[in-house]
Amino acid sequence: LFREIRKTGMLAEEAMYRATGHVNTHKGMIFTLGIFSAAAGRCIQEDGTVTLQSILRMEQKMTARILRAEIEMLGKEPAKSNGEKNLVQYGTTGIRGEALAGYPSVFHIALPVLEDGLLRGMEWNRIKLQILFALMSRVQDSNILSRNPSVLYQVQMEAMQFLEEGGAYSEDALDKLIRMDAEYIKRGISAGGCADLLATSLFLAMLCNKIPNENGAILNLFPVVK
User: Fold this and answer.
1) pTM (2 decimals)?
2) Residue 58 near residue 29, CB atoms below 8 Å
3) Which one, 82, 107, 116, 137, has least CB within 10 Å?
4) What is the number of alpha carbons within 13 Å of residue 190 lying toward its C-beta?
5) Per-residue pLDDT reduced to its tens digit, 165-183
């Protein structure tokens, strides 16, 4: 299944490059949402439903063996993306490593923050901002790492400080974020890897009916995912 969907993924990448003038803007997103979309379809085909546990198990069955072999081979070939360059330079495994490990950044960082925000009755957009900064404080974002490890460390420390000061739920959060956004644009910093993981988390939450309904009620709170 993983080999088959990669053919579609390659077509999507080609369309992306045509639209962006050969700039990689969504390669990680195509990879991850392609995997989880196919995994969800297989779960529904086999079980008639999809849960966080079942889609994670299916993702692992689909990808583990192939990605393990790929990561071992990547250092022997010319790097094509920031993630592959980082593997050669710094030994980080990027989005392939996330998939191989069962997306720990999604299941152990992003989704718990999402659940906490819902339980506390926080505004939906602020929950998403809180998730983004939780990821930025802990994930080795390939886009930022490709600039310099010291830049990644600085961004992680800034994100951590933002969270310690109340994060997206503090009264002055939006003013802080506007200033940070302007500064990151000036410095050419983009947490694109964390943005992909945020989008993946929202996709899974919506897929498994774990987001607020129109009245703001909480639907099907998250089980513990092991």
Assistant:
1) 0.86
2) no
3) 116
4) 10
5) 999 999 999 999 999 999 9
